[in-house]
Structures are given as structure tokens and as C-alpha cells.
Design goal:
The structure holds 2 protein chains of 2 kinds. Chain A is built from 1 helix and 60 strands. Chain A is mainly beta. In chain A, the strands form 16 sheets. In chain A, strands 38, 39, 41, 42 and 43 form a 5-stranded antiparallel β-sheet that branches. In chain A, strands 46, 47, 48, 50 and 51 form a 5-stranded antiparallel β-sheet that branches. In chain A, strands 55, 56, 58, 59 and 60 form a 5-stranded antiparallel β-sheet that branches. In chain A, a hairpin with a 2-residue loop joins strand 17 and strand 18. Chain A starts with a strand and ends in a 7-residue tail after the last strand. In chain B, strands 3, 5, 6, 9 and 11 form a 5-stranded antiparallel β-sheet that branches. A 3-stranded antiparallel β-sheet of chain B has the order 10-4-12, with no helix packed on it. A two-stranded antiparallel ribbon of chain B has the order 1-2. The C terminus of chain B is likely disordered. Classes of the chains: A mainly beta, B mainly beta. The interface between A and B is large, with 89 and 76 residues. Strand 6 of chain A pairs antiparallel with strand 2 of chain B, so a sheet runs across the interface.
Chain lengths: 738, 184
């Protein structure tokens, strides 16, 4: 018998269905096998980690963020899109780790949406930002972001068209690149509707580095923005939607349905784009993945699988053309990369011939060994060869990391105390100085101490919810001088707290209350024009405190008298601060030949008894030569005794001049030598007195002996307008002037 | 300990799954399927013509070379010219009814008691079929593997009855393009 000859008919290889002449390394089928270090290895298809909620309808997307797996789900019953976090398996009990339902992100979602999660870490060294963005590929829902540290969900808004009104942002896809966050598909049309604002699907916007706000040269509100108006790039043809974002060789790969582009650079001034293919693109937002280990990006196009190194696009599906034909693809294709076995997984969403009893399409994937450049196959096969039905919605690579927690402060500062004094330096605004000292408990070079202040009531410091941070310094320092010009007396309280690596210690004890002796930061300047009857009152800018009020008083000297006490005031309306006010007054209030002066000050209308500034007077008084000649004037008062049987009667007379209509009042005071009474002795009934005449009234002396002097006062509407002179005291008994 | 997994989301429920890793969880602990904890790996070679496209070979043995570290059971199925190899049916007693041969399925278990433990094994099976091309399928059920079982190559042993003809020195336009090289 001739000897047996040996022929190798099977070697470690991969799927091959398009080769005309097969060789031993070509396999027709490789179910649940993978290429493993020069041999084949069984691969367990799937293991259930967790079932989220009880009625979730579908998994929409997943990503890793803050060392957890984050999952976006849709619930068709409640019509909500929900966010979950999934911790890693426990070393003792395995999967699942801690599962938490975080938030209902959107409501009233009646049809299954196409949404994505994007993780971004940025911010400054002492204010890190870790955000998880949620965006709608179809741009029906506004983009939002989740901050885990505060458990807050925020709508993304920005004034991108610089019309001082922030718009809701509707990105279709987002991805971090070079410490910037990129978003696709949004265009802010000035005054446009949301539909008009999505007209540029080929556009990408990029944020400020690390999402650190800065002043946008284009303006808008607020002036410091995370996204600038003119920070955007476009790729390909206008209207051709960007389908997917990925990475290759340091480039941001941007895929449209029929073209591939690469964006490279490091910042706003250097971003550039290049087109790698004008015919090959990506089928959907999940169908591209960066291999991470060799700088390549693998993606599924309408012509099958391709790979790009950031400079060219190369097909890799030659060996599996029949598989590609059997499973036409759409935007639901998912790609994931496993670095441990350098395998790229593509899940295809078309049914194979076998379905389970419920008619659900089985999960089907093609695995590409990037080292051997061979393909493997695998629907999830049960024992006995029937497929397990796991229709795949998305696939990601997740890596658990041993992230050492950056240390926080050791403990809280203690023994906080303070002193207050007002610092007065001529020529400078007065300052309210609070000097604080404490015992520091943290001395690390990267730790700081923050000084917080609160007015009115004491506070339990819980930054940033209560109080105001007024300063910070190295943690090893234990004194702080707060020198400001307060505009409110209030009681003020202070606390200090250590900060390290974004973590606060507990707060120190409270120092205070301190009541400020503050004055307004500025004073008024009053001037009068030579024309008189017009005063300019200026309140220079820089005056602080709210709200301050400008008091203006117009004072008129009483004719025939001397001294400041004889000025009477007309309080004017309170006038807001921070303006140069020209007061002219009502000319009807002026009388010819009367001397007027103006004074002004600032007063706080706050109920906390805020002191007013000192009165400032106009440099000159004014005697207007205009004005109504209606002033009531009194001449020299006299009285004579008129004897009547049984009574000593006197007549008091006083010339007056009044051409003004209106109500006037005459008050007559009798002084018996003990001083002019404050209340009139004789109150003449209110009547109008006009014209020029001699006012005469009779009175009976109430005293038997003594000296009496008489004074007339003319009043207008309860305002003492003018006084007469006081008569010479007369002995009432003798009637003879003393 | 840091590790990387591929996670799958279900489009029809709130379930998330992790994809198994080769060499680490390819055993019998899969819990994906509520009805079963086992899964099947299927490896099928291409149709290989050892003597060329129009050659003729009597196929007598199939040998599987693999690396193992514990008990295993592998099932091998062989087709020659797309017809499954046959064996004589020795299950009936008495009068033989119908065909004396049935489809052949080869089940090989190991390691043998004399095994020194982990190492390479060669699993051979007898077949008897004559034809031009051969195709072999290997099935492994996860619950039948303890440790790991890593197939490396599959070899056919047989006798070439007729070698395929080589190309003439001059090739005409009507000549076929498809050709295999001499397989000796």
C-alpha cells in the first residue's frame, strides 16, 4: 500500500468567502472562535451584566465617564430617555457593580430616538469640569449635559449669534479632540427658528480649550463664553450631514455618507482639514472606532469595512465580500475595538436566516483581527447551535481604571478670629478693614485657603451656595486683610476653608458679626451757575452700594434774621444716583430778593440705618432777580395800648405785602419776658391776605404786670415764610416803653 | 485591576452584555442565555483540493493538532466532495435493514489517562472517502472544555490516485484562468 501523504487543510486563519482559490488558512465559518496567539480560542459570546430598570425599552448609547459605564435608555411606556451609571464588577461578587438611575433626560419621546453620550473632562486646575453630554443625532431635542458632582442636568445654551440672547444648542454629534469639545450640525441663525438653526449639517463647532470661558471678540451675552461665535469649520459639501466622528493618528476623523475627512491642529489658529476620500464615508454614527493602539480608525461604509490612518483610506473587506452582500448595512451598524486581543467588532443589524421563537433578529458580528488581518464570524450561538437573540443597538469598549483619588485637605482650619477698623486716608475713599487670622491645617503646596464673607446673618459655609468668596491664598498662610469700602453697615460674617484638588475641607468657625461704619464711596459736588436758580449736582461714578439716593434741599434764608438756623428747607424728590443732576426748581417757589442756597447728600434708603454723607453746599447763595413777586413780607411790628374801661387793650400792627393768591396764616406771639413761646399766642384764622396794608389786631394783655413784646409770623401752608421783627418790650401796666 | 471589555446594548430591552474574551472566559460560565449556560464554537475549513482541482484522492485520516490544559471533547465532521463521510452502522442487530452505512460524526475526548497534563495533542480520526476536495468542521461545546482547548491546524492524510494536470507551456485565450499549483 502506498504511504499516506500529508496535506494541511486547515490552519489558523480567518473567514474567507470571496477567494477563488482557497488555501488552508481560509475558513468558511468561525462561530464563537477567535484567533488567539497563533491558534484558535473559544470565545464566550456574551454575558448579561445588568437589566436596567424594569420597563426600559431599549439601550440607546453607552460610554465611559468617571470610571463608570454610563447608559442612555428609552422607555416607550413613560416616553422618557433616562440616564444610568453602571459600576464595575465587584472582585467578590462579580457583575453587576453598583447601578444607579441618574436622571430622566428627556420627556415626551414617543418614538425611539437616536441619541449619544459624550464624555469631556476639562476646566481649570482649581475648577475641573467633568461633563457628560447627551445629544440627539436627529436634532429634535436640545443638547444637555450632566455634572455628576452636583447631580445636575443642564441645557446647553450659548449666544452664538451675538444678539445678546443665548440659544439652545442642538448638536447632532459631539467628540473631544485636543482638549476642545467639538459638536456637529448646528448653525445659529440670527433671530432664526430652531429649524433654521440646523441648516448646516456639515459644520463643526469647537469650544474654548477645556471649556474654560473667555471673552468672545464677536460679543454677545455673557461676554465670557465656552463657545465662540466664529469658532467653526465645515467639511465636504454643504448639506451633507456628518455621520460619524472618530480618531486616527492624531487627527479627528469626520465622516459623511460618501466622504472622509481629517481635521488636525492644536487650536483655533491652526485647525486645518483634508479630504481623504470623496467616495468612501461611514454608514452611521456608531460605525467608526479608533483602534487606540496603532493609530488607525476602522469604519463601515456602504462598500463594506475600511481602515484609515489619517492619510488614506484602505478597504479591508476583500475576504468577506459574500458576508457584506448577505448583510447590507445602515446607520445602526456599531463598531468597537478590544485592545486586549486587537480585534475590531462590527455588529450588523440585518437578520440572518435563523431567528428565535419570538422572531427577534439574532445579534451578528464580524470580528477583524488587526494583527493577523483576518476575519472571524459569530452570531451568539446557544448550546446546540441555535442563535441567541440579542439584537444589538450599540457596542463600546470600556476600561476600568485604578484611578487614585487626588487627596483632599487633611482637615478644616480652626480658631478663626478678626478685628474691624475704618481706615481713613485724606484724599482717598474711606476703607472698611477686616483683619482675619486662623490656624491652618493644610500645608501642601497645591492647597489653598478660601476666605468667604456673608452679610446679614451667619452662614454654614457650603460653597458656593452661601456667601461670597472674597479671596484665596496659599493654604499655609493664616492671615487675610479684607480692605474694601462697604456701602452697607450690615453685620458681616466670615469663614475660611481649605481647598485641594477640587475638594473642600469643612469650614472654620465663624468670625463676626462686624458692623461697618461705612460711608458712601463718593460724595456729591454741588455748584451753582451765575444765572442762579440752577444747581448742578454731580454724583461721580464709582459710587457703590445699592440703592443710594440723592437728597437735595433748597433752603431760603428768612429775611431779617441771621444764622443757619434760620434757613428753612424744601425737601425734594429723591433722585437716583450716578448722574449729574441739574436742579432748577419750580420758579413759583422762588421769591424775588430772597436768598437761597442748595445743598445735597447721598442717603441709603436701606432700612439698616445707613448713614448719609455729609451735606455739600453750593459754593454761593443765590438771590434771584426773577420769580414771583408774591412773597409775603412783614414790616416792623408795633403795638399800642388802647385803654378801655376795665381792660387794657392793645393794638398790634404789622405792615405786610403779599401779592400772592392762596392761603396765608398770621401767627402772633406775645412774649411776657420769659421768651417767645413756640406756639402762637394768637392764631389768626386762616384767611387770604393780599395786597399791601397794615395788619392790625387787637389783643388783651393776659398779664397784669410785666413786659410784653410782640412778633408776627407769616405762614404759607404750614411753612414759616417770614417773620416780623420783635417789638420792643413794653410795660403793660404803664404802657410806657421800657 | 484594570481591564477592558466590549459592552453590548440591547435594542429591545434594558439589558447590557459584555462580550466574552478569548482564553479567559471561554469556559462554561456563560450566563447570557436564560435557557442554557453553554455555547458552541464552530470552525469549518474551506474546501481544499490536495491534488488539485481535477485530482482524485482517497482520504484516510484527519488529524487535529491543538493545545490543551484539561479535559475536552471535540466533535469533527468531514465532507468529501460535499458529501459527509460514512461509517458502517453497527447499531442494529440481526437482519440489516436499509443502508449499511450512516453519516460519520467523530467525537474525540481527552486527555488520555497517560497524558502528562498541559501540552499539545494530535487527535486523529479514520475516514474513508474518495474525491477531489475535503472540508472539515470542528465543534466545541463550552461545557465540555475545562481549562482551554486551542485548535492549531487540521491535516488530511491520504493517497493521491490522480494528480491534477499542470498548465501547458503555451496558454491560449480559451484557457481557464482558475488553476491550483502543484500540490505535492
Amino acid at each position: 500500500m502506498p504511504p499516506l501523504q500529508r496535506f494541511v487543510i486547515g490552519l489558523t486563519g480567518g473567514l474567507q468567502d470571496s477567494k477563488s482559490i482557497p488555501d488552508p488558512s481560509d475558513m468558511v465559518e468561525l462561530y464563537n472562535f477567535g484567533l488567539f496567539r497563533g491558534r484558535y480560542g473559544l470565545r464566550a459570546p456574551v454575558e448579561e451584566i445588568q437589566t436596567l430598570g424594569t420597563t426600559e425599552t431599549a439601550i440607546l448609547h453607552m460610554t465611559t465617564h468617571l470610571n463608570k459605564i454610563w447608559i442612555l435608555t428609552w422607555n416607550s411606556g413613560s416616553q422618557t430617555v433616562n440616564l444610568y451609571s453602571q459600576g464595575w464588577e465587584s472582585p467578590e461578587t462579580g457583575w453587576p457593580g453598583e447601578t444607579l438611575e441618574k436622571a430622566a433626560v428627556y420627556g415626551s419621546i414617543s418614538t425611539r430616538p437616536n441619541m449619544f453620550l459624550t464624555s469631556f473632562s476639562g476646566g481649570t486646575a482649581d475648577a475641573p469640569q467633568d461633563r457628560l453630554y447627551i445629544c440627539d443625532y436627529d436634532q429634535n431635542e436640545v443638547t444637555k449635559y450632566w455634572i455628576e458632582s452636583t447631580s445636575t442636568l443642564t441645557t446647553l445654551t450659548c449666544d452664538l449669534d451675538a444678539d445678546n440672547a443665548a440659544e439652545d444648542i442642538y448638536f447632532s454629534l459631539m467628540a473631544p479632540f485636543q482638549f476642545h469639545l467639538w459638536g456637529t450640525g448646528f448653525y445659529a441663525n440670527i433671530g432664526g427658528t430652531p429649524d433654521l438653526e440646523k441648516l448646516r449639517p456639515e459644520m463643526l463647532r469647537f469650544s474654548q480649550p477645556g471649556l474654560i470661558p473667555n471673552v468672545d471678540p464677536a460679543g454677545g451675552t455673557p461676554s465670557s463664553k465656552e463657545w465662540f461665535t466664529f469658532n467653526h469649520r465645515s467639511v465636504g459639501r454643504r448639506g451633507d450631514k456628518i455621520r460619524a466622528l472618530s480618531y486616527a493618528a492624531g487627527n479627528l476623523m469626520v465622516f459623511q455618507s460618501g466622504s472622509t475627512h481629517a481635521i488636525f491642529g492644536y487650536g483655533q489658529d491652526s485647525w486645518a482639514t483634508k479630504q481623504l476620500s470623496d467616495h468612501i464615508g461611514c454608514v452611521g454614527p456608531r460605525a467608526a472606532v479608533a483602534s487606540d493602539t496603532d493609530g488607525l480608525c476602522y469604519f463601515w461604509s456602504h462598500d463594506g469595512p475600511f481602515v484609515t490612518n489619517g492619510s488614506q483610506v484602505t478597504p479591508i473587506g476583500d475576504d468577506i465580500r459574500q458576508h457584506i452582500i448577505d448583510h447590507p448595512t445602515d446607520l445602526r451598524v456599531s463598531a468597537a475595538y478590544s485592545p486586549e486581543d486587537t480585534t475590531v467588532y462590527f455588529t450588523l443589524f440585518e437578520a440572518k436566516t435563523n431567528v428565535d421563537a419570538a422572531g427577534v433578529e439574532p445579534g451578528y458580528y464580524l470580528a477583524y483581527d488587526t494583527q493577523k488581518q483576518r476575519w472571524c464570524d459569530g452570531s451568539w450561538q446557544r448550546g446546540g447551535g441555535s442563535p441567541v437573540a440579542i439584537p444589538v443597538s450599540c457596542m463600546i469598549t470600556a476600561t476600568s481604571r485604578e484611578i487614585a483619588e487626588a487627596p483632599g485637605p487633611k482637615s478644616a482650619p480652626t480658631n478663626l478670629s478678626g478685628t474691624y477698623q475704618q481706615e481713613i486716608v485724606p484724599g482717598f475713599p474711606k476703607k472698611d478693614v477686616v483683619t482675619l487670622t486662623w490656624t491652618s491645617k493644610e500645608f501642601a503646596v497645591d492647597a489653598t485657603t478660601e476666605i468667604w464673607e456673608k452679610s446679614g446673618t451667619d452662614f454654614t459655609l457650603d460653597p458656593p451656595a452661601q456667601g461670597t468668596k472674597i479671596g484665596w491664598q496659599a493654604a499655609s498662610r493664616n492671615t487675610y486683610v479684607a480692605a474694601t469700602t462697604k456701602t452697607q453697615t450690615f453685620p458681616y460674617y466670615y469663614r475660611v476653608v481649605h481647598l485641594r484638588n477640587g475638594t473642600y475641607s469643612a469650614a472654620s468657625n465663624s468670625a463676626g458679626p462686624f458692623t461697618m461704619a461705612c460711608n458712601p464711596t463718593t460724595s456729591v459736588a454741588v455748584s451753582a451757575l451765575e444765572t442762579g436758580l440752577e444747581w448742578r449736582i454731580g454724583v461721580p461714578s464709582g459710587n457703590t452700594g445699592s440703592p443710594d439716593v440723592l437728597d437735595i434741599e433748597l433752603q431760603r434764608a428768612i429775611a431779617g434774621t441771621e444764622g443757619e438756623n434760620n434757613w428753612y428747607s424744601m425737601a425734594l424728590d429723591d433722585i437716583p444716583e450716578n448722574q449729574v443732576y441739574v436742579y432748577t426748581g419750580d420758579t413759583s417757589n422762588y421769591s424775588k430778593n430772597q436768598e437761597y442756597r442748595c445743598r445735597a447728600r447721598i442717603t441709603d434708603i436701606n432700612n439698616n440705618a445707613y448713614p448719609s454723607s455729609a451735606w455739600r453746599y453750593a459754593p454761593v447763595n443765590v438771590v434771584p432777580d426773577t420769580g414771583s413777586d408774591t412773597e409775603f413780607s412783614l414790616g416792623t411790628a408795633t403795638y399800642t395800648r388802647v385803654s378801655k374801661p376795665g381792660m387794657v387793650t392793645y393794638i398790634a400792627t404789622c405792615p405786610y405785602s403779599n401779592a400772592s393768591p392762596g392761603v396765608d396764616t398770621i401767627r402772633i406771639y406775645l412774649n411776657d419776658g420769659s421768651g417767645m413761646p413756640s406756639d402762637p399766642t394768637i392764631m389768626v384764622p386762616t384767611r387770604s391776605i393780599t395786597g399791601t396794608a397794615l395788619y392790625k389786631t387787637y389783643f388783651t394783655c393776659p398779664w397784669e404786670i410785666g413786659n410784653v413784646s410782640v412778633k408776627f409770623e407769616a405762614w404759607v401752608a404750614d411753612t414759616n415764610m417770614v417773620d416780623s421783627s420783635t417789638t420792643t418790650p413794653v410795660d403793660v401796666c404803664s404802657g410806657i416803653p421800657l | 485591576m484594570a481591564g477592558t471589555i466590549v459592552v453590548i446594548g440591547d435594542t429591545t430591552s434594558g439589558k447590557i452584555y459584555k462580550v466574552g474574551k478569548i482564553g479567559r472566559d471561554s469556559g462554561s460560565d456563560a450566563t447570557y442565555d436564560p435557557e442554557s449556560t453553554e455555547f458552541t464554537g464552530i470552525l469549518r475549513t474551506e474546501r481544499i483540493s490536495p491534488a488539485g482541482e481535477d485530482g482524485l484522492v482517497r482520504f484516510r485520516r484527519v488529524a487535529l493538532r491543538a493545545y490543551q490544559s484539561g479535559p475536552y471533547t471535540a466533535t469533527m465532521t468531514v465532507w468529501v466532495d460535499d458529501v459527509q463521510t460514512k461509517r458502517y452502522d453497527n447499531s442494529a442487530e440481526g437482519v440489516l435493514v436499509g443502508s449499511p452505512v450512516v453519516d460519520q460524526t467523530i467525537e474525540i475526548s481527552g486527555p488520555p489517562e497517560t497524558s502528562l497534563g498541559e501540552g499539545e495533542v494530535i487527535l486523529e480520526a479514520d475516514i474513508d472517502a474518495t474525491g477531489t476536495f475535503i472540508q472539515v468542521q470542528l465543534e466545541l461545546v463550552s461545557t465540555d472544555i475545562q481549562g482551554y482547548f486551542l485548535p492549531e491546524s487540521i491535516e488530511m492524510q491520504g493517497q493521491v490516485i490522480r494528480q491534477s494536470r499542470s498548465w501547458p507551456a503555451e496558454m491560449t485565450a480559451s484557457g481557464m484562468v482558475k488553476h491550483t499549483a502543484e500540490s505535492q
